[in-house]
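Annex B. Sample input.
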Amino acid sequence: MKLFTAIALFLTSITFNIKAQETRPDKLYSSNGFGLSIPIGKTADYFAPKFSTTLGLNIGLGNGGLFLYPKLSLHAYEFNQIVAEDNNPYKVQKGRATTYLLNLALGYRKIVDKWAFYGFAGGGGGFILTPQANVNAANLEVTMKNKSNGMAIGEAGGGIEYNLGAVNLFAEVSYQHAFSKIQNENFNSVPISIGIKPNLSKLFKRK
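Annex B, continued. Sample output.
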């Protein structure tokens, strides 16, 4: 959590030092999305999608279409354990796993009238919490705890936006690949989200 706090402070510092340019209407957006993150491949053997959210910023670079895209994925999954871990013979079924994955990507946006199309690619990391059950048969008690699975990730995707003035509606799809394993398999998912991107550029516009 200290790492996420440091990153958040760093991004806040960047944001408040941005001076919007009249030649670029998309200098700074916040991004607030919700949807599903669909596990694919062998990841679907132990994860199933649940309601998920994402938070991010689109920070324009220069006067063209390039932008920096830091994004925090707060995805949720149903967890059906298939491999016992840590010498615990009990396997959790219909549990809940959550992700805290921060990706920093470079993107490009093309604006056509009220529409915009964009793509991005980058990398980052974080952790995924998976539940574990400890059973005390003598006391007829089950104690739940979370296992933290740290990992580096790569993510690439694209989206479409529609401008409503101070706010853009957006739909986005991406592919996430982790370079560490859960349940002895690499984590892979396809996050799909819709939401809003308030245009914060005017807050930094020179008067």
